[in-house]
Amino acid sequence: MRGNMFVPIDRLPPILDSLIATGRSAGPGRPWLGLITEEFHGRLVIASVTPDGPAQKAGLQHGDVILGVDGKTPETLAEFYRDVWAAGDAGVSVPLDVMQGGAKRRIAVRSMNRLDHLRLKSSY
Questions:
Q1: Is residue 41 packed enough to be buried (19+ CB in 10 Å), middle (13-18) or exposed (0-12)?
Q2: What is the value of pTM for the model shown?
Q3: What is the maximum alpha-carbon separation in the chain?
Q4: Paired residues of 98 in beta bridges
Q5: Distance in angstroms (rounded) separating the CA atoms of residues 95 and 69
Q6: Whole-angstrom distance, CA of residue 115 vs CA of residue 95
Q7: Considering only CA atoms, which of 39, 20, 42, 44 is closest in space to residue 96?
Q8: pLDDT tens digits for 34-82?
Q9: Is the dihedral of CA 52, 55, 58, 61 positive or negative?
Q10: What is the C-alpha R_g of the chain?
Q11: CA triplet 81, 23, 48: central angle to 5 degrees?
């Protein structure tokens, strides 16, 4: 399936006016970490980090394995993102448990609104 934004039909009515007017939903953004994660052999592996993004600033790197989000162990990408988003709004610190260089570490990543990183006007 191709596309860059999908909204479940039952969640569309409350944000439809804002999407039409501004191209995005109103209110605080979800926490964005600035990383791309892939499922690989049953593990969540960081495929890349955005230059100067929150993940890079926190020391995360390509190849690190995500073991958990604040002590919860996501098994899929969908679970990973749900756990990150459950941490709060953009700006919240998200504690990630990772395997980095053969050692388990907990790294707090200060999230941000993705629009701020892209230097677009945030909707809040």
A1: exposed
A2: 0.77
A3: 48
A4: 66, 105
A5: 6
A6: 22
A7: 44
A8: 999 999 999 999 999 999 999 999 999 999 999 999 999 999 999 999 9
A9: negative
A10: 15
A11: 35
Structure confidence at residue 2 (pLDDT):
55
- What was the pLDDT predicted at 124? 45
Q: Cα–Cα distance between 77 and 53 in angstroms, integer?
A: 20
Nearest CA among 100, 105, 95 for reference residue 31: 95
d(CA 112, CA 100): 23
Look up residue 21 and give its two tokens. Answer: 């007017």
80-104 burial code (b ≥16 CB/10 A, e <16):
bbebbbebeebebebebbbebeeee
